[in-house]
Design goal:
Layout: H1 4-13, H2 18-30, E1 33-34, H3 35-41, H4 46-58, E2 62-65, E3 71-74, H5 77-105, H6 109-112, E4 116-119, H7 121-133, E5 138-143, H8 151-162, E6 166-170, H9 174-181, E7 186-190, E8 201-207, E9 211-217, E10 223-229, H10 232-244, E11 248-249
Parallel strand pairs: 5-6, 6-7
Antiparallel strand pairs: 1-3, 2-3, 4-10, 5-8, 7-11, 8-9, 9-10
């Protein structure tokens, strides 16, 4: 059950000041009251109640009765909820409208950056599929772990092979080569003998000789990847990988 402290914190997160939240709650406790009444049930100084009440009136959260002394009455809870929700929605639209404008003005930012980092298995999965789907000529996909060969990846590799893209799968693991080699148009190969079976290696994706993703699997089985596309970093690293690795045809 929410206590008053939690309620005050929540009102502050909705944009009210601490005094505004305390006065609003106090008036609902009282039903209506003067500044003296409000000050008697809160720690808001009486001298501050007047300005706080005026601010709440401007927010549409209370009404002021021009009597002597002045009395205050809060709007209903339903009306207050609607008022705060409408205000929150206006502020949300204003904030994200600006962010959207900034985003549109900087559409080239991603192409200006060389290296991107992706963390978590699901996000790496998504990035792999995205890179594979952009291939126009060639794909090299490699992993030692069958668990990293997801259905979306298999489906994308098969679709790209059917579209005429050259698809090569490299793995030292028989199960991986068997799974992906069974796909129409997908070729498989074994990595060079000089490369040991690195237990931290995750996936490698090379697309059209200009996009690259490399991932590692942590001791907790989490996956982290770096990727780059249409960058000097990607092209240089791909050339280095291709120069050092001559794959062996899969004879199985």
């Amino acid at each position: 059950m929410t206590d008053e402290s939690d309620a005050l914190d929540a009102f502050e997160r909705l944009g009210l000041t601490s005094y505004e939240a305390k006065v609003f709650i106090a008036l609902h406790r009282l039903g209506s009251g003067t500044a003296r009444d409000v000050a008697s049930v809160t720690d808001v100084p009486r001298s501050q109640v007047y300005s706080v009440a005026e601010s709440l009136e401007n927010r549409g959260l209370l009404e002021i009765q021009q009597s002597n002394p002045i009395r205050y009455r809060p709007v209903s809870i339903e009306e207050a909820q609607a008022t705060l929700e409408a205000r929150f929605e206006r502020e949300r639209e204003r904030a994200f409208e600006y962010v959207d404008t900034v985003k549109q003005e900087s559409t080239t930012e991603e192409t200006q950056e060389d290296i991107w980092t992706v963390r978590s298995r699901d996000r790496v999965d998504d990035r792999v599929v995205d890179l594979l789907s952009q291939a126009e000529e060639t794909i090299v996909f490699g992993t030692r772990l069958p668990a990293l060969v997801t259905e979306p990846i298999k489906r994308t590799l098969e679709e790209q092979a059917a579209a005429g893209v050259s698809v090569l799968v490299i793995s030292r693991t028989d199960e991986v080569r068997a799974q992906l080699g069974a796909l129409e148009g997908v070729e498989t190969a074994v990595p060079p003998a000089h490369r040991g079976d690195d237990q931290r290696s995750g996936r490698i994706v090379i697309v059209d000789d200009d996009s690259l993703l490399l991932s590692v699997v942590g001791d907790d089985h989490s996956e982290t990847a770096i990727w780059s596309s249409d960058s000097l970093f990607a092209s240089v690293l791909i050339q280095l990988i291709q120069a050092s690795d001559e794959v062996q045809p899969d004879t199985n």
